Structure formats: C-alpha cells, structure tokens
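ingest -> validate -> predict -> emit
validate: passed (alphabet ok, no gaps, 274 aa)
predict: started
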Amino acid sequence: MKKILFLVFLFLNITHAQTDNTHVVYFETGKFNVPEIEKNRLVLFIQSLKDIEIERIAIYGFCDDRGTDSYNLTLSQNRANAIKKIFSGFGVDDNLISNVDGKGEVLLRVVSSDNINIIRGLNRKVEINVEYIDSDLKTVPKEEKEPLFLREGLKVGDKITLDNILFKTGYSYVEKESLPVLEKMAIALRERDDIYFTIQGHVCCTRNERDAVDKGTGKRNLSLARARYIYDYMIEKGIKRTRMRYVGLKNKYPLGKEIKYDRRVEIKITSILK
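emit:
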C-alpha cells in the first residue's frame, strides 16, 4: 500500500503543478487518517497562508470507485473532517472554513490497466481551495441591474443566471439571504406571463460531470432537486405549471468563477407568446 501511495506522490509531482491557493491531500485505501508525509505537506501549505488575507476555505473529500455510494460518502466526509481538524489545530479560524463536504467517489476512467492503482490513488483525496483577497485589486461595487426578463429585446434561447440566488452546500434549498431575490423573480415572472421557460439546476465540485448527493435525501440528484425547488416555489407564487419545466444538468457547465456560483439555477427562455 505504501508503495502505491509513493507512486501516486511521484506521479503527482511529475504531472500536476500546485497553485498558490489550492492543495490536495492523498489517502490510503479505506482510510481517513492523514498519512505522515501528506500531513507534513499540508502543514507547509497552511504555513504558507499566514501572510495572506483569506476570504474563505473550502474542503472537499473524495474516494476511489470501490465501495457503495453510502460507504464512500461517509468515508469522503471523514477525510474532509480530518483535514478541517488539522486546519483548526494550527489556529485557522473556523469561520473562514465555508465548506467541509464529502463528495463520495470519483468515477474510474482507465486508459491502461497498468495505471489503475495510480488512478485510484489520485482519486483518494481531499481538495482544499483557498480564496483570498488580493490587496492590489480594488473592490468596485457592482451596479444593480434590471433583470433581463424586464428588458426589451428578450428572445427565445436567452439564459438568465440567477447570480444572487445561492443554495446551501449539499442541499436543495436556498440560503436565507437569497429569498428576497427569489421573491422579486417570481413577481417579475408573474408580470411577464407571455414567457415560457425551463429551470436548469447545477451543482459544483463533482468529478466527471456527475450530479452531487442531496444530503437531505441521500440521492445523487442534487441539480434536479434544486431545479424542482425553484419550480415548486414558482407554483406557490402563482406561476402556472404549463409555463415551465425543470431539469438537472449536474456539473456539466461550471462557470469558472468562485465555486459557490456553480451551486446555481438558471432560467432558459423556451417560448414567448405574441
């Protein structure tokens, strides 16, 4: 086992360049205790953050493809918890750690059977993403914009990203601060009863474009559940069912911004009555 883990480290050093705000910790099969060599690497990473103004830290645990979904979800969560404990032990403020989530297994994609142990070793991991404030950049307040569906020129195929409607990590319901924005959305859509649309749910932080597990139900359909949440909300607010449908798009379309923005729902215009 230690030989395989060493090969993983060697493969990592050859093929992956670590960025200054990302770190990966690797584990042995079925274990969530941090190997000594990996703990030493993690400590060096934590120490490198001491002069950085950290905004938030996200910790995501993963497993290889062996084991059941429920077993892997628990193991990946335990791995994430183990890393969080080390951060706390070195004095990192718990309030800076926004996410400590187990994501379950990473599907195995094998090019050659000779590499299967190395590939699995690379999937037994915790990913740590540190977002920090660049002191050289000035923050410019965003100008409030009128929602797209209230403007002239709206056409079929337009997609509206609900930037300010953010979901609780791992769940299908929105954060409390998003509810006023969601209410305004419902009011606008009631006024524009000529619009027919599809609600598209998305998730973050999974591999191979998989859906994430809904921690409320234990099912791997979180993107669909989020879209359904918005769908049900709109019905409660008086939007007719016949005007809308909902789909889950898993993690197929990440935005490339902060990961919280991938936990999102978009509205795609499918028809406008004349």
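The beta strands are 22-26, 54-63, 97-105, 125-132, 159-161, 195-201, 244-248, 265-272.
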